[in-house]
Design goal:
This protein is an alpha+beta fold. The protein is built from ten helices and ten strands.
């Protein structure tokens, strides 16, 4: 919590620092230059978030013409390849689509996230109280990231060499907005296992938003995070795979996807806030196993259990994998009894090597 009682805002990016570090070392300046600039910009934004933690987050003003409860209020801004936020307003709630596909995708992604939260879980926006959804597109030059900064979404255009426009993948939009849901609920610490849980929860709900939008069942889904985001020259299909962590990419420049699928391969590192984007593969895989074991729409049962844990008030900020797993088992029993749901969740954690108490 911040000194003024508000939730601690965390700077969360979709591209992990270890990926950008690898790119920054490339011999080709067309690859190294954008990666280095992105790392510098991310470092600046991360510092701003820390200052906000100390000084307190500013209150979010109610927008003009705010919609009724249960309906979104989206505003899209254009940074015009600069870094000032939020930028120039280019589309408001209810405005017709324009010629800029990036603006339209951002608007649609915010709406899809709002719709899943409202229709599946009865949640009014990411804070549960109708928080306006703001997003800035065309941020900076060749910016290789997208982030939630504690107050709004920001999307880069990518460098066109390794990463494409960050609004292309709707699960990326959902992932970052889900960091906002975590910020307003469990507020998981962004380091080590709680940080990996923070990242995993965002991957889970990013995947669910994608599946909900496409009308896919758990069996039909690809369980990839960021599919379509990698440029054609990259040997890979996505940023992460929940179905098979560690297989999303294997590229000469990016290296190999480092995510483990089970605790046997848990990575101990001081980089990436203690491996938050790496070890998230373990709880990600547990969710995939539970959802596919249950079948049907993943957002309905497995997603409901994960949502119950995230918002139920028992998940502590410093929760470890075993704490989260134990709460999902309890939540499955509380909501569905001693049936298929409880069995699927329990076995999923057993398969990835995480104990439940």
């Amino acid at each position: 919590m911040t000194p003024n009682g508000g939730r601690r805002p965390v700077f969360c990016t979709i591209i992990p620092p270890h990926v950008l570090d690898k790119l920054a070392q490339a011999e080709d300046p067309a690859l190294a230059g954008p990666a280095r600039r992105t790392l510098q910009r991310d470092a600046y934004e991360r510092t701003q978030r820390r200052l906000t933690t100390v000084l307190g987050a500013p209150a979010v003003p109610a927008p003009e013409g705010r919609a009724e409860a249960g309906t979104p209020h989206r505003t899209i801004y254009d940074a015009q390849r600069r870094t000032g936020l939020p930028g120039k307003k280019v589309r408001g709630e209810g405005d017709a689509p324009g010629k800029d596909a990036t603006v339209n995708r951002a608007y649609a992604g915010l709406g899809a996230t709002f719709e899943l939260l409202t229709k599946a879980y009865g949640r009014d926006s990411i804070d549960g109280s109708g928080l306006p959804l703001d997003a800035t597109v065309h941020y900076d030059e060749d910016y290789n990231n997208a982030f939630w900064n504690g107050e709004q979404m920001v999307f880069g255009d990518g460098d066109g060499e390794i990463f494409l426009d960050f609004t292309i993948a709707i699960d990326v939009i959902g992932h970052e907005l889900a960091h906002g849901v975590t910020q307003y609920t469990a507020n998981l610490t962004y380091f080590g296992q709680p940080g990996a849980l923070n990242e995993s929860v965002s991957d889970v709900f990013g995947a669910l938003i994608k599946q909900y939008t496409l009308g896919q069942t758990a069996e039909e889904a690809d369980w990839l995070i960021g599919a379509g985001l990698l440029a054609p020259r990259v040997t890979g299909e996505a940023l992460r795979s929940m179905k098979a962590p560690g297989t999303a990419y294997d590229d000469d420049v990016l290296g190999k996807d480092p995510q483990p699928a089970t605790m046997d391969d848990y990575v101990r590192t001081g980089r990436d806030n203690g491996g938050v984007h790496i070890n998230s593969g373990i709880p990600n895989h547990a969710f995939y196993l539970a959802a596919t074991a249950l079948g049907g729409n993943a957002w309905e049962k497995a997603g409901q259990v994960w949502y119950d844990v995230l918002t139920g008030g028992e998940l502590k900020e410093d929760a470890l994998f075993t704490d989260f797993a134990t709460l999902t088992v309890r939540a499955a029993r509380a909501r569905y009894g001693a049936g298929a749901e409880l069995d699927a969740v329990t076995k999923a954690w057993e398969q990835v090597g995480v104990r439940t108490l």
